[in-house]
Design a protein that fits this description.
The protein has a domain of 96 residues: hypothetical protein PF0899 fold (2-Layer Sandwich). The chain is 61% helix and 10% strand. α1 runs antiparallel to α4 and α2 packs across α3. The longest helix is centred in the middle third of the chain and has 85 residues. The protein is rod-shaped, with a radius of gyration of 53 Å. The chain starts with 25 loop residues before the first helix and ends with a helix. The relative contact order is 0.09.
């Protein structure tokens, strides 16, 4: 607003008349503004809730297949672990019997009398049967003859030494069939028993 200094004779100022404007009640304006602010706040909350729900639904749609696939993969891994354990145990049993077989065959070559227990067990099993012939590796013949004498085997029992048979092979032929008391057969029985036991 600008001002002006009046000379002395004009010192009387003329009154200024202001326009009258309708009065506005502030309390009415506050109520409408407050209602608008509340409506805006409510709209924001509802929009946030709808957005959050839509986001969750979208994440569910995207994540559910991934989670199902992950669960399937974990189930496959668990099954694979069990299968690997079973296969490994079977391989371990086979390896153990192969090692035992080599050790026993070596012992048989060095000392055929090491199979005395096996021969005695075979004669004990065959007591009630009539044995007609025993096919064996030549290295076992002295041991089997001694066992026959100690166990009272029939005099007409024929020992047939066969060099084509592996060391440790011992076959008892009876009227009811053949009893294979060979080292390999005994080891296979042990292996089968161990595997059966593992599968329980």
């Amino acid at each position: 607003m600008s001002s002006e200094i009046l000379p002395g004779d004009q010192q009387k100022a003329a009154p200024a008349f202001w326009r009258t404007v309708a009065t506005v009640r502030m309390d009415g304006w506050n109520t409408r503004d407050e209602q608008a602010a509340q409506a805006l706040d409510q709209a924001r909350r509802e929009g946030y809730e709808r957005g959050l729900a839509a986001g969750r639904k979208e994440v569910e749609v995207q994540v559910t297949p991934v989670m199902e696939k992950l669960a399937g993969t974990l189930a496959e891994l668990a099954a694979l672990r069990d299968k690997l354990r079973e296969d490994t145990l079977h391989d371990l049993v086979r390896l153990a019997t192969m090692v035992a077989s080599r050790v026993i065959h070596r012992e048989v070559v060095i000392d055929p009398d090491a199979l005395g227990g096996l021969v005695k067990a075979a004669f004990a099993k065959l007591q009630a049967r009539e044995v007609s012939r025993v096919r064996l590796h030549p290295s076992l013949e002295p041991l089997v003859r001694r066992c026959m004498e100690q166990n009272g085997a029939p005099k007409n029992l024929v020992l047939m030494a066969d060099p084509a048979l592996s060391a440790g092979t011992l076959l008892f032929e009876t009227s009811q069939g053949v009893l294979d008391a060979s080292v390999e057969t005994q080891l296979h029985e042990i292996e089968r028993g161990l595997i059966d036991r593992l599968e329980m």
